Amino acid sequence: MRTLSCMSSSEPDIAPWLLRSKVTPPRQLLSLIRRPDLIQRLETGAEGSLIMLEAPGGYGKSCLLSEWKDQSARQGAKVCWLAIDEDDDVETFIAYLAYSAHIAGIDTAGSGLLNFELSSDGNPSQAIWQFLARIERSGHPVHIVLDDFERLSPAVSRLVIPTLLRRLPENATLVIASRGAVDISTVDFDHRGLVTRLGPADLSFGLQEMTRLWKGRLTPRQIERLSEWTEGWPVLIRLLLTASDMGTFDIRHIDEPGYRDMAIPAYFEEKILSRIDWDLMVFLREASVFEEIPFDAIQEVLDQDDPDFWRRLESLEAFLVPLSGERSGYRLHPMMREYLRQTLSEQQPGRYGALQVRAANWYSDRGNHVRAVKHALAAGDETLLIEILEQTGGIRLWLQEGLIEFRAIDRHLKPEIVQKSPTSALMRCVILMKSGKQSDAAALYDGIIARHRARIAADDLLSISSTVMRVMLAVYGGNKINDQDVQQIEDAIRRPERVFEHFEGFILTFKCLAAHQAGKLRDAIQFAHEALDVFHVSGSLYGEVYIHIHLAMIHSFMRQTDESVGEFRQASDLIRRDLSFEGGIKYLNDVIAIEARHEHAPYDQKDMPRLKNLVARLLRAEGWIDIYSGAFRTLSEQIYLAGSLDDALHVLSLALDFSRRNRITSLTRICEAQREILSLISSAPRQSGGGAVAHDAYDPIPALATSPWRVVEAECERHLHLARSGEVTPNLERVTAFRDDQLAEGNLRVATRISALLALVSSGRDLERSLGILEEALDDNRFGRATLFVEDILRAQIAGAGLAARFPQLFARLSARPRPAAGEAPGGRRESIVTQKEWAVLRELHKGQTDKQIALTIGVTEHAIRYHLKNIYAKLNARTRQEAVQRAAALGLLTLS
C-alpha cells in the first residue's frame, strides 16, 4: 500500500512526499567553528548574483553556509536552502526549490509548484519563471543555496540552471556549494563582476584563524607546524580540536620529530583512537562496516545495548554524525570510516567478514536488498550473496516497486554471479529490455532457462517469474500474443496453491494487451479496469500507470476523447506525485499522448522537438510495438510535413537498424511500410535498405491471427498506396474486411485511415461506404491524420464521382485543410532532425575542433558538448565524430568542402 504522506492536512497545497530535511541545513551538534572573515566575504558576495564554493568534502562548506544562513536571517534576508540528490529530476528539483522558498517564508500559495499543478516537464522555463516571480515579489533579499551541487542531474543542469541564472531577480543571489568544479557558464556574470568564488585555498584555515582557534595554547612555531601538517584542512582541524578538548591529544607535542612525517592514518590510530576507551574504539572500528549505522543494528549486529554505553557514545560526536530522526542511528565521518574499515579488514579479516555477514542478513531480513547485497559482496561469501539475491523476490519486486532497487543491485553483480542466480538473471533481462537491448535479454534468458531448468521447475516463484519473462520478451519483441499464449500464462501463474501478490494484476494486464493487439478494444478496456482494481488494492503504482497509459491510447483510437484525456491525466498525476524519479514511464506516456494529438491534428507540429528527443531516447530505452510504432511513424510524418523527406526516411532507418538488431520483426515491417508510403506520396525513388520485399513475394495484407493490428494497418496502408499508384492490384475484399472488423470493435483510427485510402481505389457503393465512414468520423474534426497526404486526390475523387453534394461536410473539410506541398515546410521553414546547437557542434566537428574548442566557439560547457555529441550519434546512427560528419553531409545537413 502507498505510504507517502509526510505533511499534515493543514498544508493541502503541498505535495505529501516533500521532505523538509532536503530544504534545511544539516544538523550540527558541535558548536560551529566561527569564520567571520569568510562570512564577510559571503556578505560582500551577496551584493552580486552568484557565489560559488568549490572544494572537496571536509572543507566546511555546509557548516559555513549554515552559519551565514542564520546571520542573514537575523538581518532580514530570506534563505532558500536545497540539498540536491542524484535522482532529482526536473520536476522534483523545481518542486523542492519552491518548497525551500515556502520554508524560508516566501509566499508560494497558488503557484501550483508545490503540488505539481504547474508541470515543468514540457516547459521547465515557465515553472522557473513562476518561482523567480515569487522571489522577486517577496520584498526581501533572497539567498538561494544549492548544496551538494555535484549531485545535480544532467537534465536539471541543462533545462533548469541556465534559466535560473539568466532570469535571476535583482534581489536574489544564487549560492552553489560543490565538491567539484561547477560545470555552468558564468561568462555574463564574470564580465559584470557579479561572481564570488571560494575554493580550497579560501576555505582552509590560515595561520591567523588557527591562532584564534587554539586560543593561545600553541606557540607560533607549533601553529606553523600544525598548518604544514594539516594544510589547514577544516575537518581535520575540527577533529584535533575535539580530541584536545577531550584530553586525548596533547598539542604541545606537535613540535617533536616524530610528528613531522606522520600520516593522517597513523595520527588517527596513535593520537586519537589509542586514547579513547578500548570498548569505544572497538565499537568505532566494527561500526565502520556500515555506511550508516541504524540504531537497531547497533544493538543486534554490534551487540551494544548498555544504556551507559549509549551515554558514552556522546563523547565521540566528532566522529559520529547523528542521522535525521530521533534514535535513527549514526554515520561515521567518511575519512574516519574508510581508515577504520580498512584497518579492521587487514588486522581482523575473520571478524570483518563475520560482521559483513551479520549485516547482510540483518538488512535482508528487513527487505533492504541493496545494502544486504553490498554487505554480502564485502563479506566475499558467494553462497550468501546468491541466497540474498534469490530472497529479493525478483520479478515480483519489479511488478510491485519497479526497477529502482534492482538496478542498484545489478550494478554490483558480475556476469558469473548472474549466471548462478536465476532470480538476478531474470531481473537483468528486464533491465536489458528497458535499455533497448531486447536481443541481449533474449540471449540471457535462453541461457538461464537451459542452465537452471530443473531448479526453475521446482520453485513456484521462479517458474512464474520465468513465464512472465518469456511473455515480456515476446511483447517487447513485437510478437503477436494469441489466446493459447494467454491460457498458458494463466495456467502457469495459477498452478500454485495461491497466486503470488501482483501476479494477478499481471494476468489481467496481459489479457488487456492480447485483446488490444487483436483489435478487440472493448475487451481490452474491460481487462484494464479489472487490472486497475487489483493494482490499486495491492499498491502497485507501476501497474496502475501502465494500465492508464494503455487505456488512454485505446480511448483515443475510439474517439472517446474525454476518457482518453482523463486517463492521460491520471497517468501523469501518478508519475508526478509518486514516480517522478522513474523518468522512463513518463516518456512512454508522452509518446502515446503525442501520437494521439497527431492523429487528430497532424499539421500542428508543436510536439515535434519533444518527439525528436523521445525517439533518440527510445533507441536506448524501454518500448513495445505501440510505443515504437507511435513514435517513429508520427515523427517521420511530422518531419516530412516540416519539409524534409530525407530526414523523415533517416528516422525510419534508425528504427529499422534498431529493430533488426533486436529482431523486432513487427517494427521492421511497420517501418518498411512507412518508408515506402512516404516515398510513394513524394514520388521519390524508394529506398531498399536491404530490407524491402518484392510486392509479389509476400502477403500484403496479413491476418490479425498472426500479426498485431498496428502491423496490419501499416501494411494495408502501403498496399492501398501501391494500388493507387498502379503498382499492384488492390485486394479490396481483405482490406475492407479488416476495416469493417476494426470499425465493429470501435477502432475509428484504423477505420478512418483505411477508408480514406479505400476511397481512392474504389467505386460505386464501396466508394460511398468509405466516404460515409469518413464523414461520420470526421464530423468533430477528429482523426485528421486519416486524410493526411491525400486530401487533394480524395477531393478530386469525390468531385469526379459526382458525390460532393452527397458528402458536403467531408468535401468542405478536405477543401479547407492546410496542404503544404511535399517537401515544403509550413511557413517556408525547414525542420531538421538535429537542433540548432547540434548543427553548430557538427559544423565545428567538420573543422576538426576538440570538445574544448567547440565549447568556447558556441558558448557552452564541455559537458554540454558531450551531451550534444551523444544525441548526435543516436540521431545519425553514428559511432565516431568522422562518421557523424559524413552522415550529416549525406542528409544535406552539412556541406563538405
Automatic annotation (TrEMBL):
PROSITE patterns: HTH_LUXR_2. CDD domains: LuxR_C_like. One of its GO terms (biological process) is regulation of DNA-templated transcription. It comes from the Bacteria. Residues 827-892 form the HTH luxR-type domain. InterPro entries: P-loop_NTPase, Sig_transdc_resp-reg_C-effctor, TPR-like_helical_dom_sf, Tscrpt_reg_LuxR_C, WH-like_DNA-bd_sf, WHD_MalT. GO terms for molecular function: DNA binding. Keywords: DNA-binding, Transcription, Transcription regulation. Pfam families: GerE, WHD_MalT. PANTHER family: DNA-BINDING TRANSCRIPTIONAL ACTIVATOR DEVR_DOSR, HTH LUXR-TYPE DOMAIN-CONTAINING PROTEIN. This is Transcriptional regulator, LuxR family. It comes from Hyphomonas neptunium (strain ATCC 15444).
